[in-house]
Amino acid sequence: MDIKTNLIYQIAKLRLRKIEGYSNQAEWLQLRQLRHILDRSSRTEFARELSLSRQTNYRTYTERVPLQDYEACKGDIERMMRGERNILVPGTCSWYAKSSGTTSDRRYIPVPYPTYSSATTEGEAMRYGSISGTILIVASSPLRGSSSGEAIPLCP
Description:
Blueprint: H1 3-24, H2 26-41, H3 45-49, H4 58-64, H5 70-81, E1 96-98, E2 108-110, H6 113-118, H7 122-131
Antiparallel strand pairs: 1-2
């Protein structure tokens, strides 16, 4: 094995160990991310309406936050697009990812600044926007037929 191949192999091995570490700590990492989401969004209208705070535990979160499709969030997203603050995400949101509209009308997904600024591409920003703790929106189609408890209801 030449030096270049050996170096790449060692880097890949380190990355694999890190990924395995994540899988061994998945529940803890998910709970930590939930705390982060709740902490960041506790001052939003959405969190206040559902009485969510940093102290909200997983069970309470799943009981209070209904599973919602885009249409349930559309009015709030439109308000955010008009410049209203602290609706679904803290502060204002000035960047929105736009879906292609292949299965329905185009949809606008809020991507708050902290998410967008850490992404390197618009597609990456949209992916981060859906998992980073700033806003979480789940389309209904992949979840049809799932019973409660099989999926965390999200919207943020």
